Amino acid sequence: MQRLELANDQRKSDLYSAVPHSEFLDYRWQDKHSVIRIEQLESLVDGKAPPAVLSEIRAGLAKVGMSIRINPYMLDLIDWKNADTDPIRRQFLPMLSELEEDHPCMTVDSLEERHTSPAPNLVHRYPDKVLFLVTSVCPVYCQFCTRSYAVGQDTQLVQKANVAGAKGWTAALEYIRATPTVEDVVVSGGDIARLKAHHIEALGNELLDIPHVRRIRFATKALSVQPMKFLNDDEWFAALAAVAKRGRSMFKSVFVHTHLNHPREVTPLVEAAMRRLFNEGIVVRNQAVLLRGVNDDAETLIDLVKSLGRVQIQPYYVYSCDMVLGTEHYRVPIAKMQRLEREVRGMTAGFNTPLFIVDAPGGGGKRDVHSYEYRNEEYGITGYSAPAVDRTRMFYFFDPLRTLEPSIQMEWRSPRGRQAILARHGLTTPTVLAAE
User: Fold this and answer.
1) Ramachandran region of residue 378, left (φ > 0), alpha (ψ -120 to 50) or beta?
2) What is the enclosing helix (H) or strand (E) of 218?
3) Is 352 within the bounds of a domain?
4) Residues 145 and 240 occupy one common structural domain
5) Distances in Å between the alpha carbon of 213 and those of 108, 137, 285?
6) Three-class SS of residue 297?
7) Does any domain span residue 57?
8) What distance in Å separates the CA atoms of residue 226 and residue 264, rounded to the nearest whole number?
9) Residues 138, 69 share a domain
10) Based on the domain organization, do 74 and 202 belong to the same domain?
11) What is d(CA 245, CA 262) in angstroms, rounded to the nearest whole number?
């Protein structure tokens, strides 16, 4: 238990002051006491958060695409006295007053992952890489989740698609074995922290045994939102470490990819978890999402990048928020994203500087924010080409409506006006047509 002593002062609020330290740091206790209903939240923070904020959260949850799931560790990081502006709260608990009408070109599956799925649970878009979705469950549910089409419980906005568990992995593994161009497998979901230890080891070894698979990336947000999983689920951690060790012996790479968005998330407990991973020789990379009101200013992003570097997490990507239904209030326009990238670049070593990425709607894949082929500032339209995916198409990102002139917003909101805009710009991609 010595490795947990680094986090003795972890708790920031008095929400869980009566809970013994050993219980609070137990991943099972965290799971058991996660808030999954608004009534639980209201009871927990009664008298600690402004009543108007709780009322706003209750109303907001009725309008979004993600259900609520947030554990005590993350609830404790929220500044409840200033919950209306708190960047941690904003990621997981929506307030009605901050929600915005979606851009008309937003969809439930903006990346069209289900359109490039050759086998259940598998997405194959790039020639040498597949995304293997092994679960639809996470330790917490982010309100901006790009897979809100499958992750979490049904909401009034989104009815969830099915992602099979371990019994449904066979077809995906058979496809990978039969496709020699696949060298890179991202194991995600959901979150691999929800897999049993024997599933981690069995799946990892099956992938390592495929001769043409050279790299495995295990994707988990647990390092950010449930770092105690890495510290006291010894069986699960040992399975992850064993797969990584075996990979090294075979001259194959096994990475962990994680997701921290704000410097306040880089806590002593995260450092303790990283020390354990670092001692096992496991490289960890971070994929942040640029979120309005959370990290969309240079000072916060620079602080995040430097804080990640100090605990040996490589800042890999900063993504634009995907064009998923119910997330308009999070989105940042392309021009601002470019300005922020220029502010961040040069503040630290290049290998510790993230790429700012647009995951192009419609399945174009990851494009450098500066690399667009077409830009119309007036209508907020940015086009990216993706030759490795489809040389015949342009993939379009649309700036949030709030950033456009009122008259242009009205055009976009009108079905007839929207059709005229799309026709005028020659936009006939499947994603745009699907939004009609």
Assistant:
1) alpha
2) strand 215-219
3) yes
4) yes
5) 31, 26, 20
6) coil
7) yes
8) 14
9) no
10) no
11) 31
